[in-house]
Amino acid sequence: MTTQTPRFRLGFLTHVQGRDDDPARTYRNAQELFVAADELGFDVGWVAQHHVPLGGGGLSSPWTFLAHAAARTTRIRLGTAITVLPLEDPVRLAEDVAAVDTLSGGRVELGVGSGSSSAEYAAFGKDAARRRELTSEHLTLLRKALANEEVRTPGFRIQPATTGFTDRIWQGVFSAGGAMYAARGGSHLLLNRAAYGYDAPTDEVQRPWADAFLAAWDEPHRPRIGLSRFVFPAKDRRTALRHIGDDVHRAALRMAEHGAFPRGLGQDEALRRFHCFYGHPDDVVVALRQERVLPVATDLIAQFNPAVPDHDAAIRALELIATEVAPALGWKPATASGSEPQQSEV
């Protein structure tokens, strides 16, 4: 018996991390992920912005990176999940976004959020206690600039002019209230790979957030929910754990130091807390079919962070996601720039 599955776009997210002290190699490898994903038919490639590593990532300038990725790819969309909006001048950011959008042929997706690092706020002379207020203020101005409206002074509009950004802005949130706020502002929803500070499984925590977002949506364009998940298929469970297990465990212990996870977690509990899907592709598919948020998601965004698998293993994981995991869930690879994934049966 076959059942219809919702259409969704397939994305991947890299935090641009490496195991050595060679940032040039790390950046080259991350660019190669975009090239491989483009060839495999992924719909969107995302990067995360981090001004300080803290075990989270190595990319502070995402729009420079995406401009380079635009030149090396042909059809994959290019997005940030997220740009730390309170630390950016929104007009200047709009100029960067517009430039990359023009260079890429209109392939940009803009995800924004407030960030979480007090060190980042201090470095940029911003008050971390005002992060929500600053996010709202900057997003309002950013939207105006990307809509080619005058900003800050009469007669000033950003260049190059942009088109179609009404339905390409996303917000990362960590609560039902944040999800409703994003919906009321017309932003699409980005959900993190893990729900910190909760004992319940991540999808149990986040499904009410997604439902609240959809209930609050009142825009003419279609609402989108981007579901970020740790997905690492491999030959078998043992092979997957060899590439990801220790990294995930160390990351969970670091998170425990800040109160996000309980202290003293073992590896299995660390993998559960990060809501990881790993092992043979068939096992990954079975587990993802039980994922509570996926049925309402429009975008599945696979990532390997906090693991840092070697480059060949990462490329192989992308191949397995695109050829075995995602098709079994109803996805078909894009065949042309801007095309929507087709609905299929499983």
TrEMBL record:
Q: Which GO terms describe its molecular function?
A: oxidoreductase activity, acting on paired donors, with incorporation or reduction of molecular oxygen
Domain Luciferase-like per the UniProt entry, residue ranges? 12-253
Signal sequence extent = none
The entry's cellular-component GO terms read: cytosol
Question: Can you name this protein?
Answer: Luciferase
